[in-house]
Amino acid sequence: MVTTFFVFSVILGLAIYFTRNKTMNYALVILHLALLTTLNIHEYAHQDKLEDRFFRADSLGFIFFVVLTIISSTTLIHSYIYNEKRKESMRKIALHNVGFVGLITSIVGVLLSTHIGLMWAFIEATTLSVAVLIYHDRDRLSLEATWKYIFVASVGIALAFTGILFLGIAFQGAGNIDFTIDAIKQSAGQLDPIWLKVSFLFVLTGFSVKMGIVPLFNVDIDAKDVSPSPIGAMFSSALLNVGFVAIFRFYECFAQTSILEWMNKVLMISGILSIFFATVYLLKVQNYKRAFAYSSMEHAGIAIIALATGGVGYFAAILHLVLHSFTKASIFYQIGQIHRVYQSKHETHLGGYFKINPYGATVMLLALFSVLAMPPFGMFISEFLTFKALANKGHWFILMTMLVLLSFIVFSLTRKFLVLLFGEMPTHKKFSKNNGGIHPAETITQFILLGLVLYCGVVQPDMLKTYIEGAVKLLAVK
Amino acid sequence: MFSIITSIINDNEVTVNMMIVVFAITIIYASVAERVSTHITLLVLQGIVLFGIAVIELKHINFANLAFILSETLIFKALVIPYYLRRIVIRNKISKTVDTIIPMYYTLIIVSVAVVVFYIFAYSLNDTHLQIKYFTVSISAIFAGILLIMTHRGIIGHMIGYLVIENGIFLLSLAIGSEMPMIVNTAILMDILVSVLILGVFVNRIGSEFSTLQITKLSELKD
Fold first, then answer.
1. Could you state, in order of their start, the residue ranges of all structural domains in chain A?
2. What residues contact residue B186 under an 8 Å CB cut-off, 6+ apart?
3. What stretches of A135-259 show up as alpha helix (H) in DSSP?
4. Which residues in B lie closer than 8 A to residue A192 (C-beta atoms)?
5. A419-466: per-residue pLDDT in tens?
6. What is the predicted ipTM?
7. Beta carbons of A144 and B188 less than 8 Å apart
8. Residue B42 burial by CB count (10 A; 0-12/13-18/19+): exposed, middle or buried?
């Protein structure tokens, strides 16, 4: 079934590229989403079963697969609106849709792969397909961002592949090279720890481009800023999760070896530095899209620290990323509308949004509560669990540093939101007081996504808990 | 003389060793090469050396896989990609010499010292399964590639650095014996080919948009 999905995706991708009738083109993208949903249901019924030799939906892959399906559906709606409002040419729409389908397909490959070499190849495929999406506007800024993203991501992915090869050197000592996750988990304990450490370091560096954390975070911020807002939503949710899953897979492989403590330290350093840089830039930046890109970096840092802390932190890390995906996607969709109203992303050009678009402003207000992890939104639980895990393990210094940095972020984001929602209306020429032709129905998806975050915070569904606990168990089972 | 050459060719280990040394020389030479065309010629040479090593080292793997890897090295690494780079250089009227941040004399010293340090590191590991020569040269190539990217101002220098990294990784994968499934091999080839093609497309666009291919011009995106 998984291979069939890939084959059909390639055929659909080609058909989308050559179809220059708009209705037909979007019908093909919707068909692809229908295939994606079918595969998702299929994986629900075939969990933990190996399919087509290299694919399996374990709990971790399945959770993020569901997130991907939800976010892809909502992103398609907003991409359609984005292209319609800008009266884009059919060629640009076709290219955009090919990139979109390619991105979704390669993310599915990453989530379901049981072979780390194959997973690596799919991650590279995400870089190539997302490049088309970043370059959508075809101006100097998008050219610069695309060049930097492809180049740095390619170098990063090459470094990650070097990490896989180091693992191969370690395997040579054991006499048998098998890069499936199960095989690595079984024999990692007998491998030379020095190679495992070097391997993990290279892999973390390489995949940090995808997750948007230290060290290679810069190009990710540029890409989120320049790409169309709906694609920014994919960056901050589905693609960020891809980076996490890739790092988690290696962490999972080595979790039962003597390097666990060392890995935790490295992740902790990467996580706290990510929050630090996010804080510094958030205090300085005036471009709203970049601000939310740095906010994504902050949350990715929190998830990495939660993972490194262990215990209840494992649960918190996965829950945090699931809820962050929904929150940040709705913020980026809304940023698209804000840009339509003000024709700008700059702080000095924005203000009085509540008067112009009360529905959109309500979304932003709710999103502020969610992104700041205020109760009863679900991210309060995941952040609280992270703090609890840090306290339980006695990481007081990290906990205190994190709290101080987060308080700066709370200040910076709140100020930005308040300026946007209640500040004075701008007077610049491009701004018109009509609301940019925004229909209230365009905010439905944002309310649904934020509603999901709220639901997870208040009700805490058993199903989600069971799947996250299943994913955490992957770290314990050899 | 002829008999010496024949005996060298017949002795696979000696041949492989020589080719690895040639590969090492190309990376050291690349650290001081001033002309873009020299860099491209060095890439061709690296592609041929990798082809030679693959012929000898991977004889035991199945034919389809071997044919694939050989065509990857000879056709793509030694012919297609260098040809494409030359076309980019001509089309965009890229300066014939490269522009570096630090004098090349320093990069030569850094790369040479790195080769020695990596050798000592590999030797000190006492790992009987580790092929020290392969390891030293491939890691040095990855390091030299990163250094090329860091020290060159021109975009073409960055692309060359990326290709040197890819060649280093390929050499490292030969040391491990390439037990990857066919699909991963395909993906790796696609990766290099597509990234170079896509990067090339963007170089052309940057060339026409910014009228210069200096990376310092790409600095409009900031906070």
1. 260-478
2. B68
3. 140-174, 181-187, 193-211, 218-226, 229-234, 240-254
4. 127
5. 999 999 888 777 766 777 889 999 999 999 999 999 998 998 999 999
6. 0.89
7. no
8. buried
